[in-house]
Amino acid sequence: MFTALYRPPSDQVCRLTSDAELTAAISEPGGLLWVDLQVSDEVADARLLRDVFHFHPLTIEDAVTDRGDPAKIDDHHDYLFIVVQALRPYADGEEIASDEVDFYLGPDYVVSCHREPVPAIARYRERAQQEPELLERGADWLLHGLLDLLIDDYLPIVDAMDEEIDRLEGEVLRGPDTSVLQGIMLAKRNTLRLRRAINPQRDIMNRLSRGEFDKLIRLESQIYFRDIFDHLVRVEYLVEAVRDLADSALNTYLSAVSNRLNEVMKVLTAAATVFLPLTLISGVYGMNFQSNQWPPFSAGWGFPAIVGLMLFIAVASLVYFRLRRWI
Prior knowledge:
The protein is an alpha+beta fold. It has two domains: 2-256, CorA soluble domain-like (Beta Polymerase, domain 2), CATH 3.30.460.20; 261-323, Up-down Bundle (Methane Monooxygenase Hydroxylase, Chain G, domain 1), CATH 1.20.58.340. It contains nine helices and seven strands, in the order ββαβααββββαααααα. It has helices at residues 19-27, 42-51, 57-64, 119-130, 139-152, 154-174, 178-209, 219-284, 302-323; strands spanning 2-7, 14-16, 32-38, 72-75, 80-87, 98-105, 109-114. It has a seven-stranded mixed β-sheet with strand order 2-1-3-7-6-5-4, sandwiched between helices. α2 runs antiparallel to α3, α5 (139-152) packs parallel to α8 and α6 packs antiparallel against α7 (178-209). The longest helix is centred in the C-terminal third of the chain and has 66 residues, at 219-284. The model has no long low-confidence stretch (mean pLDDT 86).
């Protein structure tokens, strides 16, 4: 299933629906063709890329299969094959997911391929239909617009992750539990996923902006790819900041758990210290004494005296601990 927008030379933007129309549009010099292909049938979609555009079989395999490929750029002389990652909308408490988007950039065409709907591409298609001038500045400008929207969707996700870390830090201070730890570890995993997505794409934008592909990327367009590169550098910096916040939240969680354990151990140690002399006394007087030894077991005041001594030692120990602020 594809959507094709074509701007003929000195004419209005129109939609193409057949392979024959695509072939005619490619053959006509001076126009600009954008084909957005959402892969649903690998065989049919591969045939379209092979028979109409004559792309290399290896790039077609990368574009139509559901195997996720890392971001990369390949130069095939007459066209560029670019693989990037589009992030799905982010929800708190969920892992970040991405969709592979493949681009073919030719002298007068751009082909975008993806298996799932990509909101950024849909938004740009609507803009192109409402603002035909977007398709009047060349294929490299069209590619820039698509990539720019894909990268712009990264920033709201990073901001949402930052707010999630702040919420987790507040929960840690209120009372650490297992769910908070799971949230922190999920945030750390998400930052790692973002770094893996950003780093290779940053290198791609750097190559597009420095004149390495001057046959397809005009000099006046290179600065715009440099702007995308700057956006990725900024997003990478923010991701590193979120990662540091996640590490800080984890350290806060571990410190809170350690402090809670110390408080529990303090109480248990104080209780054991109070009962230790009481256990010693009860053990000594629980031995088999002779009746002529002190205190005589036959005397009526012997048992109350020992119990009173034990209570005095317990109260004195607790008062002493309290004065020393140990409890």
